[in-house]
Amino acid sequence: QVQLLESGPGLVKPSQTLSLSCSVSGAPISTGDYYWSWFRQHPGKGLEWIGYTYNSGRPYYNPSLKSRLIISADSSRSQVSLKLTSVSAADTAVYFCARGVPSPHGPTNWFDSWGPGTLVTVSS
Amino acid sequence: DIQLTQSPSSLPASLGDRVTITCRTSERINSYLNWYQQRPGKAPRLLIYAASSLQRGVPSRFSGSGSGTDFTLTITNLQPEDSATYYCQQGYNSPLTFGQGTKLEIK
Question: Which of A52, A121, B53, B102 is the most buried (most CB within 10 A)?
Fold first, then answer.
């Protein structure tokens, strides 16, 4: 059974870069079978898709974050990373990584495994 | 971006009840609609994918239906552990988007 676990600093200063890692166990991330994904949830709010890496590294990003975002996968370490530059208080959120499963019947996917999430606060 | 509107936003119910949550999308998305349950302080949990397919391990009390722009999640025989917020999510277009959530409270 796949397990995901996010890690990274809980506090980031404004204008700096937020860096998170997602450690994946129980499923290889190198085969290109899954969408390794990041989401976030602002305090008391709904869910927002950040982006994912698929097919051995090709990333797909939410256009609202694309200019500040890098998502990459390191299969040797079974980790998926997220880097978000020039953060502000608006980036304070719980960040989740998740596994996206491609549909066998069409160009879509769903997210069947999630990490517990990690809270990142942007504050000086 | 495709907008998803869930109703109701809040749903009080009792043990054993049958409830329905609706999700309407701003454009047609075939059956590319998923449902998640999120308990406080926890990660989302996939319940239904592709509008009507039950995720492995999810009780059969949960069911989904719909296509195009109108979708429903139905929960029968409500149990205490069903208290949670439920989200729909479209997988038709980038960016992937979610509904605003429906908070189900078991009285």
Answer: A52
Residues in B touching A64 (Cβ below 8 Å): 95
Q: Is A62 on the interface with B (CB under 8 A)?
A: yes
Handedness of CA A44, A50, A55, A56 (dihedral sign): negative
DSSP B96: P
Closest CA relative to residue A11, chosen from A124, A93, A120: A120
For strands B102-106 and B10-13, give the pairing.
parallel
The alpha-carbon gap from A115 to the nearest alpha carbon of chain B, in Å, equals 7
* 8 Å CB contact of B96 and A49: yes
Q: For chain B, which residues lie within 8 Å of any Cβ of chain A, measuring from their own Cβ? A: 30, 32, 34, 36, 38, 42-46, 49-50, 55, 87, 89, 91-92, 94-101
pLDDT digits (tens, 9 = 90+) for B36-68: 999 999 999 999 999 999 999 999 999 999 999
Cα A24 to Cα A3: distance, rounded to the nearest angstrom:
6
- Non-local (6+) Cβ contacts of A82 within 8 A are A18, A19, A20, A21, A22, A38, A50, A69, A70, A71, A95, A97
Nearest to A62 among B43, B55, B95 (CB): B95
Report pLDDT digits (tens) over A44-77.
Answer: 999 999 999 987 667 999 999 999 999 998 888 9
